[in-house]
Structure formats: structure tokens, C-alpha cells
Design goal:
Blueprint lengths: L2 H5 L8 H6 L24 E7 L3 E7 L11 H7 L3 E9 L2 E7 L13 H18 L3 E8 L2 E8 L2 H16 L13 H11 L6 E6 L6 H11 L3 E8 L9 E5 L4 E5 L3 H19 L1 H5 L2 E2 L2 E2 L4 H12 L2
Parallel strand pairs: 4-5, 4-7, 7-8, 8-11, 8-12
Antiparallel strand pairs: 1-3, 2-3, 5-6, 9-10
Helix pairs in contact: 4-5, 6-7
């Protein structure tokens, strides 16, 4: 790795020092939870969806097979003639899964930074936020040639492992000839996460969603049944391409696109609009939270606005 790669290069590549330094910009996130003290008896700062013998009484209901017999309320059982249990909520930590796209399709941008770099920065900010809120951090980082898994763990070591994988994938991207594009890698990452059957987790997918199919929709729907799913697609600034020429590539072939040609711009805009509407439609269809990030704007500001207005 040369010195340029090690320290990043003006929005073209991400670097580990850059992603680590983003921890200090968390103060721009309104209402960020404080770090959990290491001596705290609570594993996390979120109310768990599971039921157990713990902090706050939630309800009294009839006993069903599988309930803890210790939770039976014998007075109510004697009075009603049917076994009843007392149900409590308990606080537990939450796991935040980050699904990070670093495919060749992300090696593109019109202003300020490439999508791949913005994805790396946004992932780092979300990971630091999870760490400061006491959550476990996990993820899948995928490129055209593979998918890396970071198992759920709490602490800086797991976070730095995730960031290192992102940087490795990011710095392997190039505009020249390479392996054929692998649009199915997004579905591969989502399939592997579904196989883990996560529940009550936060799942954030950071991608341009190239290769979105009905299979993708099904996988996202399955995840959303038991988890909080946030999609962060990457869009390029409007009005950035007029009167320019761009060379685009699939990694094997290259073609020059004349964006000063109005019909060409209109066709490209129609394709982009179609993909955007497909993703935004998932809000109503699946109840997903879809919040586009614009590559030409500061990612910290955008995420700060997101969590300031839309925190759950």
C-alpha cells in the first residue's frame, strides 16, 4: 500500500485514520447516548423486545408452553382457575448490523466524493455511534469478488476490524480492467444475514443497490419482520452532469458518454429516477426506513439530520 492509499486521496479512497477520526464528529449527532460505563450491570441502553424476569412489569397473561414456570402468579392462577404468568421487559444490548457495499459500481461520483468513500464514512459514523451507545457491532462488507463477515461483538476491537475490512475493499477498487461485476453480491450479503435469523437488531444497508431484484425485496422484507431496517442509498447531486463528457466502465469495457447531449441526459435521468422510486417505494410496501445520502454533501451533516429528526 503506498502513502496515498494509506492516508486517503481527496474523496477517491478512504483511509483507516480518516474513518477513526470520525469518532470526534459524533457531537454533531443530536441526542447521542452517552457511553455505557464498563462497570454497569446493564448490557445495553435499549429496551429489549424479548420478555424475561427483569426490570419492569409489562402484563399478566395466561401461561403458554415454553413460559418460565417461575413467572407464574399463583394468586391470580388460584383466583381465575387458569395458570397466569407475570411478563416483564428487560434491558439488553442491541446488535447493529452494517451491510456495506464496496463494489465497482460504487466507484463513481460526480462531486466531492465517490459513493464508495461516502459509504465508508457513513459506516464509520454509524459504527462509532453504536459503540458509544453500548451496542454490539457486526457487519458484512462486500465487493465484486467476495463478502467479509464481522461477527457481533462489543468494543473498539470489533469496530476497528469492521473499518479495516471496509478500507481494504475500498482501496482495492480501480477504474481499469478487473473481474466481472457481481451484482448478486448484495443479495449474497442479505442472504447470509437472514441465515443468522437476527431479531430485535438494527440493520443498516449502505449501497447503491445496483442489481436490485425481487429477491432483494424478499430478503429485505424477511429482515424487516423482526428487525429495524434502515436503507441508505447513495444518490449523486442533481444538475452535476450537464455539458460534460464522462467515461464509464463495467471493469472490462469503457465508453465515453456525451452528457451535453440532451436525449442522453434524459435517458440517464430516467434510469436514475426509476431506481430511486423503486427504493423509495419500499417505505410503503415494506415499512422500511429509506434515507438517501447525497454524495455531494457532507455525510456527517446528513446523518446528524437523520438521527435528529427520525430517531426511534
Amino acid at each position: 500500500m503506498d502513502s496515498t492509499q494509506a492516508h486517503g486521496s481527496a474523496g477517491v479512497y478512504a483511509s483507516l485514520p480518516e474513518l477513526v477520526a470520525l469518532e470526534h464528529r459524533l457531537r454533531q449527532f443530536p441526542g447521542l447516548a452517552q457511553r455505557v460505563p464498563s462497570q454497569s450491570q446493564l448490557a445495553g441502553q435499549h429496551r429489549a423486545g424479548v420478555r424475561g424476569r427483569s426490570l419492569d412489569f409489562e402484563e399478566l397473561r395466561e401461561y403458554v408452553p415454553g413460559d418460565d414456570p417461575r413467572a407464574i402468579d399463583w394468586r391470580v392462577t388460584a383466583r381465575r382457575g387458569v395458570a397466569h404468568v407475570r411478563v416483564y421487559n428487560e434491558e439488553r444490548d442491541r446488535c447493529h448490523w452494517l451491510i456495506v457495499d464496496q463494489r465497482r459500481s460504487m466507484f463513481f461520483g460526480l462531486r466531492r466524493a465517490l459513493r464508495s468513500v461516502v459509504a465508508a464514512q457513513a459506516s464509520a459514523l454509524l459504527a462509532w455511534k453504536a459503540l458509544h451507545e453500548g451496542d454490539r457491532i457486526a457487519g458484512f462488507v462486500f465487493g465484486d469478488e467476495g463478502c467479509d463477515e464481522i461477527a457481533p461483538r462489543r468494543g473498539r476491537r470489533s469496530l476497528l476490524q469492521l473499518l479495516s475490512r471496509i478500507v481494504e475493499r475500498n482501496q482495492s477498487l480501480q477504474a481499469g480492467p478487473s473481474a466481472p461485476a457481481a451484482e448478486g453480491q448484495l443479495n449474497e450479503a442479505l442472504t447470509r444475514l437472514n441465515a443468522r435469523a437476527p431479531r430485535k437488531c438494527r440493520v443498516t444497508v449502505l449501497s447503491d443497490f445496483c442489481g436490485f431484484t425481487e429477491r432483494t425485496r424478499t430478503l429485505l422484507a424477511d429482515l424487516a419482520r423482526f428487525n429495524e431496517v434502515l436503507l441508505l442509498p447513495f444518490w449523486d447531486p442533481a444538475g452535476s452532469v450537464a455539458h460534460t463528457r464522462r467515461v464509464v466502465s463495467d471493469g472490462v469495457l469503457q465508453i465515453e458518454v456525451d452528457l451535453s447531449d440532451k436525449p442522453v441526459r434524459e435517458r440517464l435521468a430516467a434510469l436514475a429516477e426509476s431506481r430511486q422510486q423503486t427504493l423509495l417505494g419500499l417505505r410503503e410496501q415494506l415499512g422500511l426506513n429509506v434515507r438517501p445520502l447525497v454524495t455531494g454533501e457532507d455525510v456527517v451533516t446528513q446523518l446528524g439530520q437523520l438521527f435528529g429528526v427520525h430517531r426511534r
